[in-house]
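Please, structure for the following, as tokens.
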Amino acid sequence: MTAGATPLLPGATLGVLGGGQLGRMFTLAARVMGYKVVVLDPDPNAPAGQVADIHLKAGYTDATALLHMANLCQAVTTEFENVPAQSLDMLAKHVFVAPSPAAVAVAQDRLLEKSRAQEFGCDTAPFANIEDEGFLVNAWTRIDGPALLKTRRLGYDGKGQIKVDSLDDLVAAFDHLGRVPCLLEGRLSLKQEVSVVLARNPQGEIAFFPVAENRHRQGILDISIVPAQVSEAVAERARDMAAHIAAGLDYVGVLAVEFFILDDGRIVFNEMAPRPHNSGHYTLDACATDQFQQQVRALAGLPLGDARLLSPVVMVNLLGDIWQPEPAWDRLLAHPGVQLHLYGKSEARPGRKMGHYNCLAASVNDALVLAETTRTELGIPD
């Protein structure tokens, strides 16, 4: 079902598939703006379910629950890209779904994602498709080492990928990943990683958040620095490529696109996320409109909000690794420039995203100093 000509105004009911932290922050933003929210997630303790008007505790393929959601809501979005495609298609027959099932399907498959990015004018790392073991030799011949073997589906936060330096490595890695369809991708000489988070509404209006510079630890985003420490020409090129992807997919909602900046200055598409993104969490405190408010506006068919940056900021991820014992919140909150966001998760586990905090300061350098000081106080590893 396509978007109607009349925007959905406060008082309408919006739905979100997925009850994790992204769904929680969407729900909070929507409720502050006056909307009712229905969350569908099988976990009875889902963070978004804790703050929703209605929490449908059912699986993502439960036809009865999906139809109930469609009857309750005027529009539905998703907080993660791995929602079963048939579920989105079923919902879309009864209610407006954004982003569209077709756009989400592109982000669910690395081969499709890279191929479409190239169609939209983006450079990518060299890659080769691997459907089964019969593809291995040809893929290695085309790409050669060093390379990364990545599952085509269900990979995030460094999961589902293995470094390979020889054909023997490739064979072993393919076996380790369960012999599922994969992508062999050439490893590049990287200088930086940046992300562009944008919003696009049904009328085709696009609003860009400032480009973020991302640093990772063990495959998981560690900090995001905003403004990114890149030239305006690089930032403009990244925004332009992200806009081409959004327009090419006729995308509605919040979209995050990650790019690699190479040592030779080239900008290469890495991946996209059809939803708000960890690297956009800085917007909660440092922008005139945050990424979740934009998600609500885009889904409701409203004009997009002002996305300008109000303060330099560094976002720091909080993983479950530091919950032994409870982190020293008193020390963190003693810093006036720190804004803490916890996700309402009942169990802390290593590698699990439990929250984040934003360090706001007069300059990027001051924000980085504050981030490093507080990371040390909390015992976050370098």
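Residues 232-248 form the longest helix (17 residues). The chain has a mean pLDDT of 95.
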